[in-house]
Amino acid sequence: MKELIDSFLDYLSVERGLSKNTIIAYRQDLNIYLDFLMGRGIDALSRVVKNDIIEFMLFEKDKMISPTSISRRLAAIRMFHRFLTRERVLKSDPTVLIDSPKLWKKVPDTLSLNEVEALISQPDVRTRQGIRDKAILETLYATGMRVSESTDLKANNVNLDIGFLRCVGKGNKERVIPLGKCAIKSINRYLESSRQDFLKNKTSEYLFVSRCGAKLSRQSVWKLIKRYAKEAKIKKPIKVHSLRHSFATHLLERGADLRSVQEMLGHSNISTTQIYTHIDRNRLKTIHKMFHPRP
């Protein structure tokens, strides 16, 4: 069964072009699924029936796994069985009639404008690392990029003269995102000083590099976001996509249309972008309560 997982993941990587991080997540979810099946004495996927998958979901629920995680695992299992059925490894797909657990759409945590300003102003731009870190924070907030997209961003995909960058997101999909003046200024300063110092005599295709001249990891960027948020004395919970969520929310609050924000975020489905409108509705409700003659 492990070999079938490897074949499936090779298909996702080569033919579907899914990212390395997505492949890792699928592998983890499917290994958990196979461990459950083997624990029930099921040693062949041809023996799996609908009820086994339902039992797996209930088992995960009893372990206090969140509905979001269970839905993600079910999505991986669906794709896996669909692949095996299409490849004629299995005669039928036991996931066909299984419904996903219903999910509450949680409004993401966002930072206020003042909090974003405080966060971005923390790096000490008298140092090489501070110059780089400020450029990273400015880029994340200016574009709404995912952290993994910023670490994969290549230097030749950034055009500071016209103020755009080309981002490669999930599923190898490309999108073009505008850059604001603040981000352009910070990136220019980084390119003119820190980056070449970090690289020394080496070269790199990536825009943001470590002090050793290597490609920055997602974990490194996440750590610097958390560190600067702590230094800025931001009390809200800081998550890896806090600047991305703030980018979307602030644009919508100022009248940006949903389709444009969807395109800049790289969401394939507009319903994913619509979650940010809930925050704006809360603001409108507050305004209505404050100013309506019959609140």
Task: Describe the protein.
The protein has 295 residues and is mainly α. The chain folds into 2 domains: 2-86, Tyrosine recombinase, N-terminal domain (DNA polymerase, domain 1); 113-287, hpI Integrase, Chain A. The protein is 57% helix and 4% strand. It contains 14 helices and 3 strands. Strands 1-2-3 form a 3-stranded antiparallel sheet. The termini are far apart. The mean pLDDT is 88.
Strand order of the largest sheet: 1-2-3
Beta-strand portion reads under 5%
The total strand number stands at 3
Q: Low-confidence spans: pLDDT under 50, at least 5 residues?
A: none
Radius of gyration: 23 Å
CATH architecture of the largest domain: Orthogonal Bundle
Helices and strands, in order, run as HHHHHHHEEEHHHHHHH
Helical content (DSSP H or I, runs of 4+)? 55-70%
Number of contiguous helices: 14
CATH superfamily of the largest domain: Intergrase catalytic core
Shape: globular
Q: From the helix content, strand content and strand pairing, which structural class follows?
A: mainly alpha
Write down the domain tally. 2
CATH topology description of the largest domain: hpI Integrase, Chain A
Q: How is the main sheet built?
A: 3 strands, antiparallel
Distance between the termini: 61 Å
Could you name the CATH class of the largest domain? Answer: Mainly Alpha
